[in-house]
Amino acid sequence: MYSMKILIVDDEFVSRKKARKILAGFGECDVAVNGNEAREAFVEAHEEGLPYDLITMDIEMPEMDGITTLKAIRDWEESKGIMPGRGVKVIMLTAFKDARSVLPSFNQGCEAYIVKPFDREKLEKALNSI
């Protein structure tokens, strides 16, 4: 099927575990518990020559929220000459369903947005759409 390198970013253990269980069939999964860890893992993966293909990102997290993290990732990609749409694919995976969360997520460059609770079907549909 797929063979991707995936980063799951969520501060909730149960959400990380569920996402990892579903996404493990699509490739190698790493986890980060906040935006700072995610940004560091993303940059390190690029520096090692093994960048992530997909990031699932929660919005409400300690230290750095998901929208700020997404912006930091897109800014880093731009600084390295990675054109919009050619970088890592990002699925926001969050409890927020209001326009103040959805619109900024897409404005910062996410490819899909899933409202929790999520299941295999929702994740697979988002993966197929990107």
Description:
By secondary structure, this protein is an alpha/beta fold. The protein is built from 5 helices and 5 strands, in the order E-H-E-H-E-H-E-H-E-H. It has helices at 13-23, 35-47, 66-79, 99-107, 120-129, and strands at 4-9, 27-32, 54-57, 89-94, 112-115. The protein has a 5-stranded parallel sheet with strand order 2-1-3-4-5, sandwiched between helices. Helix 2 runs parallel beside helix 3.
Summary, kept brief:
It contains 5 helices and 5 strands; from the N terminus they run βαβαβαβαβα.
Q: In one word, what is the shape? A: globular
The description of the largest β-sheet is:
5 strands, parallel
Strand arrangement, major sheet: 2-1-3-4-5
The share of residues in extended strands comes to 15-25%
Tally of domains: 1
Spatial gap, N to C terminus: 15 Å
| Number of discrete helical segments | 5
* Regions with little confidence, pLDDT below 50 for 5+ residues: none
In round numbers, the mean pLDDT is 94
CATH topology: Rossmann fold
Specify the CATH class.
Answer: Alpha Beta
- Name the structural class: alpha/beta
The CATH architecture can be given as: 3-Layer(aba) Sandwich
Helix content class: 40-55%
Helix and strand run: EHEHEHEHEH
CATH homology superfamily: Response regulator
Count of DSSP E strands? 5
Radius of gyration (CA) equals 13 Å
